[in-house]
Design brief:
mainly alpha; Na+/H+ antiporter like fold; two-stranded antiparallel sheet; 18 helices; membrane
Length: 453
C-alpha cells in the first residue's frame, strides 16, 4: 500500500467512504432497518453521545497544536464563517419569508450550520491521511479545525438555536397559542448556558484541554503524533474504533428523502465549492511567509481541499430538532454534497499531486479516469433500462429523450477513451496534427467524436 500514489490511496478511501454511506442508505430503502420504529436509536446514542465525544477528547488531548501554522487554521475558520454568514442571511431573508421571524431564524441557523459542519472525522481524516500519507503531517490541521469547530462554531450555533426557540415561544405567547407565560430573558440565558456546558461534545473538549494541561507529561510521542498513555489509550481506542463505519452508516440511514430544489443546490455550492475558494483565499493572506515556498503551497492547497469536505449528518439532526420542515432539503443537500465533493476532491488531488510535473500528464489521467467512470455509469444505466424494458413507454417523449441522451453519452465517452494516449497513442497524435480541422486528419475516431458532440 505504501507504493500506491496519493491519488490512488485517495480514490480507494473515497470509494470505501461512499460504500459505507450507500450501505446505510440501502438498508433503509429495503426496509431491513426501520429508523421510525426506533431501530437506530441505540446506535445513534452510542455514536453521538459516547463514541464521538470520546474521539473529541482524544483529538484535543493529543493535538500537537504547537507545530501548526495558526494562519491556516484562521484561514479555514474565516472561510467557514464568511460562507456561514452569507448562507444565514440569504436563508433568513429569502427562504419562505412569509413565516414568523422566529421560524426563519431557526431555519437560517440550520442552513448556516450546514455551511460549517465539515465531516472532519468520518471523511476528513481518512482523506487527508490517504492523500498526504507520512510525508507531511496534515492530519494535525484536521484536528485543529475540528477543535475550532467544536469549541467555537458548535456553541455559537447552540446560542442561535436557543435564541430562535425563545423567539418562537414569545411569538406564540403574543398570538395566544400558548397559555403559559414565556420564560424571562435571564432564565433563557441560563438555559442556553446549561445546554452548552452539559453537551457531551463541549464537556469532552474541555476535558481534553484539562488533561493536556495537567497530565500532558503522560502523553507518548510517536513521531509526528502524540498518543494517550497505554492503559487509557487502549480503552479510548476500543471505544472509538467503530466510529468511521458507524458514522458513515448513520449518515446513509438519514438520507431517506431526496428532492432536488433550489435551496439544496445552493447549500451544496456554498459548502463544497465557495467555501473551498474562500478558505484558499484567506490561506494566501495568512499563511506563514517564513515557511519554505513548497510548504506554503502545500498548506494553501490543504485549505482548498479542506473546504471541499462534504457536510456531516449533524445539520440533519438539528433540522429534525428545530425545524422539521427543512429536514428534507438538508438531507438532499447532504447527499448531493457527498456526490459532488468526492469527485471534486479527487480531481483537485490529481492536479495538486502533479504541480511539479507537466500538466499534460495530469489531464490525460483525468480524461482516462473520467471516461472509465462514465462508461461504468453507462453500463449501470443500460442495465436499469433492461430491468424495466417491459414497462418502458417508448411513446413518452421525455423518456425517449433520456434514453437517446444516455446512449449518446455512452458512445461519446467510448470514443473519448480511444482518444486517450494510454489506450491508443496514434489517435491522439492524429488529433494534434490535425487540430483545427473538422475532419481531424480524416480520422474515423475524430469524425464520430465531432458528430456525437
Amino acid at each position: 500500500p505504501d507504493a500506491l500514489s496519493p491519488t490512488t490511496r485517495l480514490f480507494n478511501t473515497l470509494l470505501a467512504t461512499f460504500a459505507a454511506v450507500f450501505v446505510g442508505y440501502l438498508v433503509v430503502r429495503l426496509k431491513i432497518i426501520v429508523p421510525e420504529g426506533g431501530e437506530m436509536k441505540a446506535l445513534n446514542y452510542f455514536v453521538g453521545q459516547i463514541v464521538f465525544p470520546t474521539l473529541i477528547f482524544r483529538t484535543v488531548a493529543t493535538a500537537k497544536l504547537g507545530d501548526v501554522d495558526l494562519g491556516i487554521l484562521l484561514a479555514c475558520g474565516l472561510g467557514k464563517a464568511v460562507i456561514m454568514l452569507v448562507v444565514w442571511t440569504l436563508a433568513f431573508v429569502a427562504y419562505r419569508p412569509s413565516r414568523s421571524a422566529g421560524q426563519r431564524w431557526l431555519t437560517a441557523t440550520v442552513f448556516g450550520f450546514f455551511a460549517i459542519s465539515s465531516n472532519d472525522f468520518a471523511i476528513g481524516f481518512p482523506v487527508v491521511e490517504a492523500l498526504y500519507g507520512d510525508s507531511v503531517n496534515m492530519t494535525i490541521y484536521i484536528t485543529g479545525n475540528a477543535v475550532i469547530s467544536n469549541v467555537v462554531f458548535v456553541p455559537f450555533h447552540f446560542v442561535l438555536f436557543a435564541i430562535g426557540r425563545a423567539m418562537v415561544a414569545s411569538e406564540k405567547g403574543r398570538n395566544g397559542q400558548e397559555s403559559s407565560t414565556p420564560p424571562s430573558c435571564a432564565w433563557q440565558v441560563l438555559g442556553v448556558v446549561k445546554d452548552i456546558f452539559t453537551n457531551p461534545v463541549i464537556v469532552m473538549s474541555l476535558s481534553g484541554f484539562v488533561f493536556k494541561s495537567i497530565f500532558g507529561f503522560c502523553l507518548v510521542s510517536d513521531g509526528m503524533d502524540l498518543k494517550l498513555p497505554p492503559a487509557l489509550g487502549n480503552i479510548v481506542d476500543l471505544v472509538t474504533s467503530p466510529f468511521g463505519m458507524c458514522a458513515l452508516f448513520i449518515t446513509g440511514t438519514n438520507l431517506r428523502r431526496f428532492h432536488i430544489t433550489l435551496w439544496p443546490v445552493l447549500l451544496v455550492v456554498m459548502k463544497v465549492v465557495l467555501c473551498a475558494y474562500a478558505s484558499y483565499l484567506f490561506a494566501g493572506l495568512f499563511v506563514d511567509k517564513s515557511l519554505p515556498k513548497k510548504m506554503q503551497a502545500a498548506l494553501e492547497n490543504f485549505s482548498f481541499l479542506y473546504g471541499m469536505i462534504p457536510t456531516s449528518s449533524a445539520p440533519l439532526i438539528f433540522a429534525q430538532m428545530y425545524d422539521p420542515t427543512a429536514a428534507e432539503g438538508v438531507a438532499t443537500a447532504i447527499l448531493m454534497g457527498l456526490v459532488l465533493g468526492g469527485p471534486m476532491m479527487f480531481a483537485a488531488a490529481l492536479f495538486l499531486e502533479s504541480q511539479a510535473s507537466k500538466l499534460t500528464a495530469v489531464l490525460v489521467n483525468v480524461q482516462f479516469t473520467t471516461s472509465i467512470a462514465s462508461l461504468v455509469c453507462g453500463v449501470v444505466f443500460l442495465g436499469m433500462l433492461a430491468l424495466v424494458r417491459y414497462g418502458f413507454d417508448i411513446s413518452c417523449a421525455p423518456r425517449m429523450f433520456v434514453f437517446a441522451y444516455g446512449l449518446t453519452l455512452i458512445c461519446y465517452e467510448t470514443l473519448m477513451l480511444f482518444w486517450c494516449p494510454e489506450v491508443l497513442p496514434q489517435s491522439c497524435a492524429d488529433y494534434v496534427d490535425g487540430f483545427g480541422s473538422y475532419w481531424v486528419s480524416f480520422s474515423w475516431i475524430g469524425f464520430f467524436t465531432r458528430w456525437f458532440q
